């Protein structure tokens, strides 16, 4: 079980006055403590993350808006070739002051709350990155994929590439020679 109190995504906003309109810029750089993305394409553990954001005090909390820059690695959904894709994604989330949370926890289910002066920006960043990633990443838009018969990349095979189609019902006679 990982220790969340040491999360590099937790930002101390104690320097930001709690008066509406106050603003402060932040710059974070650290390596990703775990993968961020989808099974086919993700920012890998240990990959550098650069996060620049602006924290703006509003009446009910702090509006955090910024961008995350990193590199995602994965494989093409058609030919399984390794691919790398730059990540440059914006995110924005309102973090409520603890005093502004409602008494009914269900009301706050989809909301983020500050923990004192601490805002944990991991979930908004994770959501922004995952939602921006393609479900079926491709090495290039016109990737031809793999041959369904031999598994070779279609790009490396000639246009005349084909396989002899044998009716499986006759496969038992494949090696038969008349005497």
Task: Give an overview in words.
The mean pLDDT is 87. Strands 2, 3, 4, 5, 6, 7 and 8 form a 7-stranded mixed β-sheet that branches. A two-stranded antiparallel ribbon has the order 1-9. The longest helix has 11 residues. It starts with 9 loop residues before the first strand and ends in a 47-residue tail after the last helix. A hairpin with a 3-residue loop joins strand 3 and strand 4. The chain contains 1 helix and 9 strands; from the N terminus they run E-E-E-E-E-E-E-E-E-H. With 179 residues, the chain is mainly beta.
In short:
By secondary structure, this protein is mainly beta. The protein has one helix at residues 122-132; strands spanning 10-12, 23-31, 36-37, 41-43, 48-58, 61-75, 82-96, 112-113, 118-120.
Please state roughly what percent of the residues sit in beta strands, choosing from under 5%, 5-15%, 15-25%, 25-35%, 35-45% or over 45%: 35-45%
Please give the count of helices: 1
Q: Could you report the average pLDDT, rounded to the nearest whole number?
A: 87
Tell me the number of strands: 9
Alpha-beta classification: mainly beta
Distance between the terminal alpha carbons, to the nearest Å?
A: 71 Å
The sequence of SSEs as H and E is EEEEEEEEEH
User: Runs with pLDDT <50, length 5+?
Assistant: none
Give the C-alpha Rg: 26 Å
What helical percentage do the residues reach?
under 10%
- Bulk shape: rod-shaped
Q: Characterize the biggest β-sheet.
A: 7 strands, mixed
Please write out the topology.
Elements: E1 10-12, E2 23-31, E3 36-37, E4 41-43, E5 48-58, E6 61-75, E7 82-96, E8 112-113, E9 118-120, H1 122-132
Parallel strand pairs: 7-8
Antiparallel strand pairs: 1-9, 2-5, 3-4, 4-6, 5-6, 6-7
């Amino acid at each position: 079980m990982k220790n969340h109190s040491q999360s590099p995504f937790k930002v101390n906003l104690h320097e930001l006055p709690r008066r509406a309109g106050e603003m402060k810029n932040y710059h974070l750089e650290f390596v990703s403590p775990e993968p961020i993305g989808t099974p086919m394409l993700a920012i890998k553990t240990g990959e550098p993350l650069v996060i620049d954001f602006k924290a703006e005090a509003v009446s009910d909390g702090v509006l955090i808006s910024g961008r995350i820059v990193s590199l995602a690695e994965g494989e093409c959904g058609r030919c399984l070739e390794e691919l790398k894709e730059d990540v440059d994604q914006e995110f924005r989330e309102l973090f409520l002051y603890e005093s502004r949370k409602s008494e009914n926890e269900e009301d706050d289910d989809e909301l983020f709350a500050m923990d004192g002066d601490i805002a944990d920006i991991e979930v908004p960043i994770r959501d922004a990155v995952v939602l921006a990633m393609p479900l079926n990443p491709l090495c290039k838009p016109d990737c031809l994929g793999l041959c369904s018969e031999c598994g070779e990349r279609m790009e490396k095979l000639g246009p005349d590439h084909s396989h002899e189609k044998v009716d499986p019902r006759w496969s038992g006679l494949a090696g038969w020679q008349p005497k």
